[in-house]
Specification:
The chain is mainly alpha-helical and 311 residues long. The protein contains 15 helices and no strands. The longest helix has 30 residues. The radius of gyration is 24 Å and the shape is flat.
């Protein structure tokens, strides 16, 4: 893999992060007066002016932007408007809870989605295939928030088996993980099935079968490794889906993570915290996609060479 290829991918990743951060910064400031929303309409003009000056909101937006970008390079992402603490510290307190929910969801998703896709592909055009894909479509069609509410009504309100909010015990993980992993597992099942079917129809698979290679060996040593190259591309999208799904799920189940903090901070116009969360999410998603892009180029040199020629 050439150095130019890696540098080009890193540059595009950094450019993407800068565009996202800039867009969020401008959008938050042109969408309303944060000082007025924090204090309310009945506050005096003097109090509003004092607050704007204290938080630098009295400066032109371009000056605020330059100060913000400069502070980022110095590791200063601002302070929360609500309690005056460093925004990084406020967000960092919520990260462990979000990560714990995400990794459990990721494990369950991969353990269900990929085997289901392989099973469906190996039984192509059979009743088993149709049942598996029907379940996948159903899982993909149910919105997270709707499924979460249904689970709460069933297991918390009606049966009183599981807690509907919080994160203290392992029981608190069950419904949020089911809510998030249902759609994700369905996506992996459908994508894995398509990747496996494409590989199974390749000439080298037919050649291996014609030579008398056992079917199990054909699947494990020829089909799966080649299908895995395509499945790797799902990882970047998977991280993004987990983040988006986490924001919704955390609010449905009152999960004390970054997603819930984001919604509360947007509602309270806590600009520094919102910007810090968006920067964290952008870094996570762009880094994941960068790693996937580099890994895909390493696993399949044809893709790398083609992209190099196009660039």
């Amino acid at each position: 893999m050439s150095i130019q290829f890696i540098i080009r991918k890193i540059f595009r990743a950094l450019l993407t992060i800068w565009i996202i951060v800039t867009f969020i910064f401008i959008a938050l400031r042109i969408s309303g007066d944060s000082a007025l929303l924090i204090y309310g309409p009945d506050v005096s003009a003097k109090a509003l002016a004092t607050l704007r000056k204290a938080w630098g909101l009295d400066k032109p937006i371009w000056q605020q932007y330059l100060i913000y970008i400069s502070n980022i390079f110095h590791g200063d992402l601002g302070k929360s408007y609500l309690d005056g603490r460093n925004a990084i510290k406020v967000v960092a307190e919520r990260v462990p809870k979000t990560l714990s929910l995400m990794w459990v969801t990721a494990v369950i998703t991969l353990l269900i989605g990929i085997p289901a896709g392989i099973y469906s592909a190996l039984h192509h055009n059979t009743k088993r295939d149709r049942i598996t894909m029907t379940l996948a479509v159903m899982g993909l069609s149910i919105p997270n928030f709707f499924l979460g509410v249904l689970l709460i009504l069933l297991f918390s309100v009606s049966l009183r088996l599981l807690p509907s909010a919080g994160s203290e015990t392992w029981k608190h993980y069950i419904m949020p993980v089911i809510t998030m992993s249902t759609a994700e597992a369905a996506v992996f099942a459908r994508f894995t099935r398509s990747a496996m079917l494409e590989v199974l129809n390749q000439p080298y698979i037919r050649t291996a079968i014609a030579k008398g290679v056992p079917w199990k060996k054909v699947v494990l040593e020829h089909a799966l490794p080649n299908a895995a190259i395509s499945i790797v591309t799902m990882a970047g999208f998977f991280i993004g889906s987990l983040i988006v799904g986490g924001v919704i799920t955390e609010n449905v189940f009152a999960w004390p993570g970054v997603g819930r903090l984001l919604v509360n901070s947007v509602a309270n116009r806590d600009l520094a915290v919102v910007q810090t969360i968006v920067l964290l999410i952008s870094l996570s998603m762009v880094t994941a996609n960068l790693i996937v892009d580099l890994a895909y180029g390493w696993l399949d040199p044809r893709v790398r060479d083609l992209r190099s020629e196009e660039s």
